[in-house]
Amino acid sequence: MIIDGFVHQLPDTDPTETDEWLQSLDAVVDAHGKARARFLVSKLLERARELQVGTPATVSTPYVNTIPPEEEPWFPGDEELERRIRAYIRWNAAVMVIKANKKADGIGGHLSTFASSAALYDVGFNHFFRGKADGQAGDAVYIQGHAAPGIYARAFLEGRMTEADLDQFRQEVGGGLSSYPHPRLMPEFWEYPTVSMGLGPLNSIYHARYLRYMHNRRIDDTSGTRVWCFIGDGEIDEPETLGALTLPARDQLDNLTWVINCNLQRLDGPVRGNGKVIQELEAVFRGAGWNVIKVVWGSKWDELLAKDRDGVLLNKMNTTLDGDFQRYATESGEFARENFFGPDPRLRKMVEHLSDDDIRNLPRGGHDYRKLYAAYKAATEQNGAPTVILAKTIKGWTLGPDVEGRNATHQIKKMTVEQLRVMRERLHLQDVIDESALADDKEPPYIHFVEGSVEQRYMLDRRKALDGSLPSRSVRNRKPLAMPEDKPFDEVLAGSGKQEVSTTMAFTRLLRNLHRDPNVGQRVVPIIPDEARTFGMDALFKEFKIYAAHGQRYTPVDAQLLLSYSEAQDGQVLEEGITEAGSMASFIAAATSYAHRGIPMLPFFTFYSMFGFQRVGDLIWSAADSRARGFMLGATAGRTTLLGEGLQHQDGHSLVLASTVPTVEAWDPAFAYEMATIVRHGIHEMLVDERDVVYYLTLYNENYLMPPVPEGAEEGILQGLYKWADAPEGPSHRAAILFSGTAQGAARDAQAELAERWDVGAELWSATSYKRLREQALSTERWNRLHPTEAPRTPLVTELLGGEHATAAVVAVTDFMKSVPDQVARWVPQPFVPLGTDGFGRSDTRERLREFFEVDMRQVVVATLWGLAQQGEVKPETVAEAIAHYGIDPDRTDPRAFDL
Ligand SMILES: Cc1ncc(C[n+]2csc(CCOP(=O)(O)OP(=O)(O)O)c2C)c(N)n1
Ligand SMILES: [Mg+2]
Questions:
Q1: What is the pTM of this model?
Q2: 565 C-alpha vs ligand 2 centroid, how far in Å?
Q3: Is the CB of 240 under 6 A from ligand 1?
Q4: Distance, CA of 129 to CA of 120 (rounded, Å)
Q5: How remote is the CA of residue 564 from the centroid of ligand 2, in Å?
Q6: SS3 for 754-816, per residue?
Q7: Which of 88, 93, 169, 325 could cysteine-pair with 149, CB 3.0–4.6 Å?
Q8: In terms of Cα–Cα distance, which of 48, 66, 67, 65 is closest to 57?
């Protein structure tokens, strides 16, 4: 294997000297073995690094702790007291899950995740995590979702929760404690949703980067905040977990610390039974440029390693597979003596003086407080790189032999009285929990410290010294933001005059105007995943500048152009590269800034609409849980408006998916003034009304004349539907055509054609948000259902389209699936005919695509006539005549068919 290719390419200036070195190494291997040789080579590498020789970084080191015992710092806490506190937390965490499952069988909850990570959290809570006292932002701590019981148990001991609260674990309907970290359900407690695995780690990276962004742009001093993220070793298989690892190294995010709980198990079984997860991760993180601290072994192993003259223990450590380590966790000390130490007489001798119990209790690093303290301290002192702590633990630790290390441990939620008794002994809690309290017919008790006891005082003092309890979420508006002036909107509301433009171009103009606004300009955060040129947004690069942690250290190829690619340390645009997931994580960081920093921002995340809800839907769901406030813009929207490209690009369903997220307001504007009105309203809702909403707007790339905003149109635009044009006078029949987005073209053409040729006067309505109309109709319907004796209320959509001025039929045309307008069909009194773009997209011209999907002018005309025929207004023969007139093959295959 070639390790360093250059040695084969550069001339060897002194072959004799080279030979002497190589022969020396050969001699060491011959005389003292490979272990000694490796020791020497490592020493040489270490010296070379000290002399700054520039040797290549190794990606893996032996299976021992990164920090040697002599470099461990003095531990400032009271270890005994902290162990005692932790025993209380452990007990209560288990009891709350057990009680919840006794009361409501199947309600779930987890015992073993927290049991394995209790010390990982405690060392943070007692010595590192900064709270939010006196309005400070504190640290951002991303907690593993399944460890929630342990966090509640601590909050209980700190006096932030009561026994009644713990008894309501997972019974959220009555306001009980949420199953996992959900700010949506516990907005004063949880800050960061993590339980959809992989999203917490990704979000933590972009959160740390966002803090630097805020700092470098001089909006806020974020130097006091550290981002901590706790991750399961099974969770690393989610692509989101490791997918963005190089960003924090590139940006030198030394404000970021990850702690990976390597209990070697996931839900079904071992994470890497046939390998070594810690070694695998070390290589990945080192390769990505992280500072890696392995905490593999507890202190009692130090003396054994110090005696390992032949390297046999190290060799055993290096070669034992994780699957076997898991087994050792479930077996006796004698088993380990025979199988781990036993085969090699030198190893067996090393533990001769230890009893079987001593051997069984040789702890893993992740359960050793001092080792963890040393690792956390080193992480906080690291400069210029993020740190990952790989802590080896046992899943279910202290829960007793029936639970610890068992493959089923993740799912265990119940414990017998006998198992509880074993745990009580294991945690040395006999003095607190009376034997009489543990009986089959009794609920196991919660335990708490006596008021004013040393334990209680210690626990509270530690948090006081660290600025208060965590987790804690609050909304403090430290730097309020006023509404933008009218000016940025006026230009867009005025229409495009004689120039044909798209809603995307109009949005770019609006964004630029907002950037120049004296009130909000600085707080606008444009986020783009390498698509700015596609949307015509590259013009913003020069003016906004692209955020780059270290500025622009090269001369861009287009430096001489007016609109060059400009990067700056205080740049405003987050040009994320090709990562919609990363962009969403950036969006979440900025969109929740009003809470975690007390500084509201206005994020505008513009993306290829196909790669939004479909690609990163779970992150959008998590943004909603996070109570995000911001704008998502699905550009190149519409299955036929985006011509060319094909089925993986042409979006006809993001509005359907958007309709599934409760806090997403989904908009489909046809005209620039609608878009501007919606954006202004969104800003008002976010900044003034303080609603935790995400506005999703489709943006299209079809150019047409943008009319000026009609007088008094605002209310109609915002309610989701308004009449855009009256029916022409003269024709005998009346229909209504609802359009949204670019379908306005077909609708307008159809209006003219219907009047001219088919004796139909069609009103035109712009449907800006079917989702909003539906929500309103559902609320009304529910009210009627629950107030049966009162006068029924009429849904808005019924009121608008029905009543005395009702037309005979309604056609709804969209560049999205028919199910988008169908959202309101139930409440439209007259025949309702949706035309949409169901099926796979395909590459062709707009004209041919609209013909193919049956959403062009001709189809709108036919649909209108057919709607009227349902009412007996026109004869079926007239519809047939129109079909023939327009050359439509009535027996052509339905474009929805997947086997076309
Ligand atoms: C995206 C996603 N997929 C699956 C799950 C279900 N799940 C919950 S916990 C778990 C295993 C966790 O293992 P690990 O990450 O090692 O955490 P540990 O409990 O061992 O600390 C799984 C598969 C989930 N929560 N999120
Ligand atoms: Mg695990």
A1: 0.96
A2: 44
A3: no
A4: 12
A5: 48
A6: HHHHCCEEEEEEEECCHHHHHHHHHHHHHHHHHCCCCCCCCCHHHHHHCCCCCCCEEEEECCC
A7: 93
A8: 48
Residue of 410, 412, 621, 625 to mutate, ligand 1, most atoms within 8 A of C-beta: 410
Contact between 671 and 474 (Cβ < 8 Å): no
Contact between residue 763 and residue 722 where contact means Cβ atoms under 8 Å apart: no
DSSP labels, 94-151 = HHHHHHHHHHSTT----SHHHHHHHHHHHHHHHHT----GGG----EEE--GGGHHHH
| Cβ(232) – ligand 1 distance below 6 Å | yes
Over residues 734-749, mean pLDDT: 98
CB–CB of 546/213 below 8 Å?
no
Please, what sign has the CA dihedral across residues 614, 618, 623, 624?
A: positive
Q: Whose CA is nearest to atom 8 of ligand 1?
A: 267
Q: Is the distance from the beta carbon of residue 267 to the nearest atom of ligand 1 less than 6 Å? A: yes
**Which H/E stretch holds residue 749?**
helix 744-757
How many whole angstroms separate alpha carbon 113 and alpha carbon 120? 11
Q: Is 370 in the pocket of ligand 1 (CB under 6 A)?
A: no
Q: Does ligand 1 come within 6 angstroms of the Cβ of 171?
A: no
Alpha carbon dihedral 820, 693, 527, 244, in 10-degree steps, equals -90
Q: What is the DSSP letter of 900?
A: -
- The two three-digit tokens of residue 659, written as one number: 């309709």
Q: Do 227 and 208 contact (CB within 8 A), yes or no?
A: yes
- Report the atom number in ligand 1 closest to the C-alpha of 196: 26
Query: What would the pLDDT profile of 519-568 be if each residue is shown by its tens digit?
Result: 999 999 999 999 999 999 988 999 999 999 999 999 999 999 888 999 99
Strands 524-528 and 602-608: parallel
- In whole angstroms, give the CA distance from residue 896 to residue 900: 9
DSSP state letters, 148-204: HHHHHHHHHHTTSS-HHHHHTTT-GGGT---SS--TTT-TTT------STTHHHHHH
Query: What is the residue whose two structure tokens read 């702690």?
Result: 259
If one counts every other C-beta atom within 10 angstroms of the C-beta of residue 875, the result is 12
CA of 368 to the centre of ligand 2 (A): 18
CA of 554 to the centre of ligand 2 (A): 44
| Dihedral pair phi/psi, residue 288, rounded to 5° | -85, -5
Q: pLDDT, tens digit, for every residue of 797-816?
A: 999 999 888 999 999 999 99
